[in-house]
Design brief:
Pfam families: Cob_adeno_trans. Its EC number is 2.5.1.17. It comes from Candidatus Gallipaludibacter merdavium. The protein has 176 residues and is mostly helical. 65% of the residues lie in helices and 5% in strands. Helix 1 (26-47) runs antiparallel to helix 5 (116-141), helix 4 (86-101) runs parallel beside helix 6 (146-169) and helix 5 (116-141) packs antiparallel against helix 6.
C-alpha cells in the first residue's frame, strides 16, 4: 500500500466518518497540533531518565492519540462520545499532584529551560497551550466535549510541573 493517495491534492483531507474538509479547517488545525505535541512528548520520553516518568509520558502519548482520533472524527459520526474521559483528566491531576509534592514552593516566574529535559517539557507545555487554543477555535464553530476541554487544560499544567521537577533535580530551576 502506498503512503500517498493523491486525494488531498485538492486541498482537502478526510475525517473519520468519510467526510472531507479543507486542510486548514479548525478541526485539522486542532488534531494536527495534537500530533505535533505527541511528537514532542516522544522526544521528551527519550530524554527522561526515570522509568516512571517515561511510563507516564507514554501513557500521555496514548491519550494524545485518542484525543487526535476524537478530533479527527466528523462530528455527525461520533454521536457525542469521545475517547477522552474524565478519568484521564483525574489521572493527569494525580500525576501533577505527585510531582508537585516533591517540589519546593515557587519563588516567582520561571524561565523556560534549566536543562535539556526541562526545556523540552516547556516546548511540550507551550505546544499544549497552542493545541488548547486551536481546540477552542474549533469549539467556537462546533461543540467540543467538556472532557476534552478539561483534559487539554490540565495537560499544559502537567508539563509545567514536570519541567520544574526536571530542572529542580539538577538545581537548575531559573527564576526571573
Amino acid at each position: 500500500m502506498k503512503i500517498y493517495t493523491k486525494t488531498g491534492d485538492d486541498g482537502t483531507t478526510g475525517l473519520i466518518g468519510n467526510v472531507r474538509v479543507m486542510k486548514n479547517n479548525p478541526r485539522i488545525e486542532a488534531y494536527g497540533t495534537s500530533d505535533e505535541l505527541n511528537s514532542w512528548v516522544g522526544l521528551l520520553s527519550c530524554r527522561v531518565t526515570s522509568d516512571k516518568d517515561r511510563e507516564v509520558l507514554q501513557n500521555i502519548q496514548r491519550q494524545l492519540f485518542a484525543l487526535g482520533a476524537d478530533l479527527a472524527t466528523a462530528p455527525q459520526k461520533n454521536m457525542g462520545k469521545t475517547r477522552i474521559t474524565q478519568d484521564m483528566t483525574l489521572w493527569l491531576e494525580m500525576q501533577i499532584d505527585t510531582y508537585e509534592a516533591e517540589l519546593p514552593s515557587m519563588k516567582g516566574f520561571i524561565l523556560p529551560g534549566g536543562n535539556e529535559v526541562a526545556a523540552i517539557c516547556h516546548l511540550c507545555r507551550t505546544t499544549a497551550r497552542r493545541m488548547e487554543r486551536r481546540i477552542y477555535d474549533l469549539h467556537e464553530q462546533e461543540s467540543v466535549s467538556n472532557d476534552i476541554l478539561q483534559y487539554v487544560n490540565r495537560l499544559s499544567d502537567f508539563f509545567f510541573v514536570l519541567a520544574r521537577k526536571a530542572a529542580n533535580r539538577d538545581g537548575q530551576e531559573i527564576f526571573l
